[in-house]
Design goal:
single chain, mainly alpha, 3-stranded antiparallel beta sheet, 65% helix, aspartic-type endopeptidase activity
């Protein structure tokens, strides 16, 4: 993340690893290839695409609690309180990095929300203040917030969410003033305005498909062990949840932006990129914009080409194959989020909590957290940090390979169920090797 809001959050350099970079990359690629080989031999029929794995019923008290209307209302109230607090810091806080507004947006909202969704389910859908405000407006107007005035176009799919996600990572990584209070405040105001207008026009379906944070949170939630099946809370394999990601237009662009922007964030901290913009005759801002766009486009293209290159049974048109496989990239994205932003979340998240106790710089301690200080424990244990990050990347890719293999068994003809998966395997190997190299170069 640019602009000085956070401490460095790369992997710490290859010198911090207990093994060499070359051995780490080789081991990760070998793990992916071996996993693929085992899957080909031992996993002959689709296990998740048939929708016959509802999972095991959760504890009855937990099902009743989370299914109660009061619980849903409580989450809505919590979301509105957090939103009101954030608005107050944006409007009345100091125009400096001591304002917790920056940490709330860049750390808690962008990183913490996603990891919370992996653990708990679709958090943003449950607490989204724009959904709550839209529901309130609809109640006053006597309309149904689910319907809106128009039907959401099916062809639009997730494309608005992909554009919204790119707009956020552009603000964070390529805009000239990512830590200027007015700039971030304006971005958030535009986001809220677009979401409220979209909700009024298309109802809550707009948030399912166009809210960048809800789409991101909901995708991450597919890796949680929780799901509601026929109204019941169940515990089931995250891979079973992952297989239920809707195959809609724009899904490939969403995962491409998420993966490409994280990869670019690592790349932007590399010594190569620093030397490049220091020696360049054009503005660093222009270089950052071009590189961010290139990373996102290349990531999207690799995913699309790798999946479209596989044959299908004919029931699934080739042009639809990329979005049928795109769900398999979600574990890879989450793996890189953990690998790249772990120290950011722990250290800067703690720092933000301390600053949040004095939102207006008045010397207050309203939350009792003003004395909190980051421990920087990972900074003193770089080998542990590096090992966690390598494992996050490898596990993410292995889960992605399993999800892709299971989907391939549903869409590939029997004669191509091995060779037909090779293009996606090549893409995943490239993402594994390239991603680790970028993380270590940061």
């Amino acid at each position: 993340m640019n602009g000085g809001i956070v401490e460095a959050h790369g992997i710490g350099g290859s010198s911090d690893l207990p093994i060499s970079l070359e051995l780490a990359v080789s081991g990760a690629v070998a793990a992916l290839v071996v996993s693929f080989t085992v899957l080909v031999v031992a996993w002959r029929r689709p296990r998740y695409d048939d929708g016959q794995r509802p999972g095991r019923a959760a504890w009855p008290w937990l099902d009743r609690l989370t299914g109660a209307r009061g619980f849903a209302v409580g989450l809505r109230v919590l979301g509105m309180v957090l939103a009101a607090y954030t608005v107050a810091t944006a409007l009345f806080g100091k125009a400096s990095l001591t304002n917790p507004f920056f940490g709330i947006v860049y750390v808690w909202w962008w990183v913490g929300l996603v990891l919370a969704s992996v653990l708990l389910g679709p958090v943003w859908r449950a607490i989204s203040p724009v959904r709550t405000i839209n529901a309130g407006i609809a109640r006053i107007a006597g309309t149904d917030p689910e319907q809106g005035l128009f039907r959401y176009p099916a062809w639009l799919g997730y494309w608005p969410a992909a554009l919204g996600l790119y707009a956020f990572v552009w603000l964070e990584l390529a805009y000239a003033y990512p830590t200027q209070l007015g700039s971030v405040r304006l971005w958030c105001a535009i986001y809220v305005g677009v979401m409220l207008v979209g909700g009024a026009l298309f109802g809550n379906r707009f948030y399912d498909r166009a809210d960048p944070f809800e789409v991101y949170s909901s995708l991450a939630a597919k890796l949680s062990p929780w799901a509601r099946v026929d109204g019941r809370l169940v515990v089931r394999s995250p891979l079973a949840n992952l297989a239920t990601v809707p195959s809609r237009p724009g899904l490939v662009a969403v995962v491409g932006v998420l993966f490409g922007s994280t990869a670019y964030d690592s790349f932007s901290e590399s010594s190569f990129w620093v030397r490049t913009y220091q020696d360049a005759s054009i503005s660093k801002v222009w270089l950052d914009n071009a590189a961010l766009l290139a990373f996102c486009v290349i990531a999207t293209a690799l995913i699309a080409i790798g999946s479209a290159a596989t044959p299908s049974r004919g029931e699934v048109p080739r042009r639809e194959l990329p979005r049928r496989y795109a769900h398999s990239i979600v574990p890879i994205v989450i793996g890189y989020v953990i690998a790249h932003y772990l120290t950011l979340l722990v250290d800067t998240g703690t720092q933000t909590l301390a600053l949040a106790s004095d939102p207006f710089g008045k010397g207050w301690d309203i939350l009792g957290t003003a004395s909190l200080k980051p421990s920087y424990w990972f900074s003193y244990h770089p080998t542990v940090l590096a090992t966690i990050k390598v494992l996050a990347v490898v596990v993410g890719h292995v889960l992605g390979a399993v999800a892709a293999h299971d989907r391939a068994l549903s869409v590939l003809p029997p004669r191509d169920q091995i060779t037909g998966q090779l293009p996606m395997l090549v893409v995943m190997v490239a993402l594994t090797a390239g991603g680790l190299m970028l993380l270590f170069s940061a």
